[in-house]
Specification:
Blueprint (H helix, E strand, L loop, with lengths): L1 H39 L7 H15 L3 H8 L1 H17 L6 H28 L6 H13 L1 H12 L8 H23 L22 H21 L7 H25 L2 H7 L2 H21 L20 H21 L7 H11 L4 H38 L1
Helix pairs in contact: 1-4, 1-6, 1-7, 1-8, 1-9, 1-10, 2-5, 2-14, 3-4, 3-5, 4-5, 4-8, 7-10, 9-10, 9-13, 9-14, 9-15, 10-13, 12-13, 12-15
């Protein structure tokens, strides 16, 4: 029974790794790709940030009805349907049309609610109180690997290109869709969890003090930052290539941070609590935002620009270092206050203002919310520490 549930968790992690290898790569390059499509097809007026905003808005709304749907169809079928919507969204780029792009964005948002809620339910069914930490760790580690492979494909296929031509775009889309389909097949192979009388653990989803900031920062480095690097002409002819490498360095930071703070940080959290790691994540993100402010021009999120910021010419090395810091800082937050879906409204809002606010304005918003979120988290954490001894004494009585 134990082996069967472990196999299920490995299949679950493998399926999500492949599906999100495709989707996170596409999200990272979507605005860059759409900018190239507009140059080849002037009648196309779609916008990558608007598409991502629609996805997260639909995800937020769908969360209200998803539990009822799962109770009717079960988590395995829900995840399979959700995976199909990811494939459909990526396939829509073969036929550039505004209505198709935004329509598939709505469908994907609903599918994302299904796949993630189904994942939480299925993982809990495969786990007991004794195995939930192990199973969650396996799933999280495999999911983080999704940042590497697709972005490496982008790095090599975009090499030396200032404009992403239709042939290159088609190759990238075809590979990403094929990878996602393999992920769908793995999810379709999931078997009914084995039980031996143990009660499955319940995965509760609580609202954290840093939830809004986590969503905004994720939206920034998963959709806005990579595009800003690719649109900064002063970086050189390899600017588009660095969009993919940016995703790789974010992934390196995520994995190293996950190992350091998730798997090896038990002693730290037991002795000092979670707040030192969360504060470290905040400091890492503040450092990254400051360097990005100096390195990339304000108009970078909107399209190709010859503007420069305070560092002239912009440094690709600093840009990649910031990618690593963003991934490492995000791992600090996720290993201590992980929340899967709760911040989808904030993510949608961030992609809306990304279409109108310059890069420097977005960085200021992130800094202000980051400081506020870190302070509120620490206040709550300190309050819990003060109350814990009294609660323990009451329990002993």
């Amino acid at each position: 029974m134990v082996e069967r549930n472990l196999v299920n968790v490995l299949l679950l992690g493998g399926g999500f790794m492949l599906i999100f290898t495709s989707f996170q790569t596409l999200g990272n390059i979507e605005q860059t790709i759409i900018d190239s499509i507009k140059k080849d097809l002037p009648s196309f007026t779609g916008d990558g940030y608007t598409s991502l905003a629609i996805i997260y808005a639909a995800l937020s709304l769908s969360n209200w009805v998803t539990p009822s749907v799962l109770s009717a169809i079960g988590p395995r079928l829900a995840m399979a349907i959700g995976a199909i919507t990811y494939c459909l969204f990526m396939a829509s780029f073969f036929v550039p049309h505004v209505a198709l792009l935004y329509g598939c964005s709505v469908v994907l948002g609903a599918g994302a609610a299904l796949i993630w809620t189904g994942q939480g339910m299925y993982l809990s069914q495969c786990s007991t109180g004794e195995t939930i930490s192990r199973n969650s760790g396996i799933f999280w580690a495999m999911l983080q690997m999704s940042m590497f492979f697709g972005n490496l494909l982008v790095f090599f296929t975009f090499q030396g290109k200032t404009h992403i031509d239709e042939t290159t775009r088609s190759i990238v889309f075809a590979v990403l869709i094929a990878v996602a389909i393999v992920g769908l097949i793995l999810l379709s192979c999931l078997r009914r969890p084995a039980t031996n009388g143990d009660v499955p653990v319940e995965l509760s989803e609580s609202v954290r003090p840093r939830e809004a900031f986590l969503s905004l920062s994720l939206s920034f480095f998963s959709g806005v930052y990579g595009s800003s690097i690719g649109f900064t002409n002063a970086i050189g002819t390899s600017a588009k290539q660095y969009v993919g490498l940016n995703g790789v360095f974010i992934g390196v930071g995520e994995v190293l941070g996950g190992v350091a703070f998730g798997l090896l940080g038990t002693r730290t959290t037991t002795r000092w609590g979670r707040d030192p790691i969360v504060i470290a994540g905040g400091v890492l993100h503040m450092a990254a935002y400051f360097l990005i402010y100096l390195n990339l021009p304000n108009g970078a999120p909107f399209g190709s620009t010859d503007e420069v910021a305070y560092i002239h010419p912009p440094s690709a090395l600093i840009a990649m270092a910031c990618s690593f810091l963003l991934g490492l800082g995000d791992a600090c937050f996720n290993t201590q206050c992980y929340s899967m879906l709760g911040g989808s409204v904030a993510a949608a809002a961030s992609f809306v203002y990304s279409s109108y606010c310059g890069l420097h304005v977005q960085l200021i918003i992130l800094v202000l919310l980051g400081i506020t979120g870190t302070v509120t988290f620490c206040v709550v954490e300190f309050a819990v520490k003060r109350e814990r001894p009294a609660l323990e004494r009451d329990y002993e009585k």
